[in-house]
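FW: tagging you since you asked about this chain on Friday. Here's the raw sequence from the shared folder, copied in full. Didn't touch anything.
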Amino acid sequence: MNVSLLDTDNSWAPVDERELIEYYFNCGYSYEVILEFLDRYHDISMSLRTLKRRPSAYGLKRKKHEVDVAQLWDLIKVEMAHAGAQSGYRSIWHALRHIHKIHPPRKMVADILKELDPEASLARKSRKLRRRKYLSPGPNSCWHVDGKFIFRFCVNFFTCVAYI
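HL: got it, structure written out here
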């Protein structure tokens, strides 16, 4: 049965049952949630036992993956360039799992991050991260959305002096 799933380039493409199971499995959903998604959104019904057999038949594993260390180094460098040096090993690990579909151990990712950027690792460990610097032309002109989607109002020293 062909169904539709949103591709990475935001276009709808027909996919089969195997691609759906692989997609939801790689996203990290539990088997019960995958069953619910398949039934509710794709009109595919199967038993829990059948679903548990499918990933092993497709060669999918949640643990004990063989990871090419050289490839992992390159991917972590790419993710650090995108996410910045302040990203911790867990956010890099999640990006590797969800974007690049590889499942390395978290300890391996943490060790590679420590070797790639030891200063940032020490800064994260001591919780002394660099703060962002803003240059604002006036009050109410600079808004920032952080990772938790909290709006922060930023006013620099110059605008405070201008209104005193």
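FW: The chain has three domains: 3-58, 69-125, 132-164.
HL: agreed, and The beta strands are 3-6, 12-15, 143-145, 151-153.
FW: great, closing this out.
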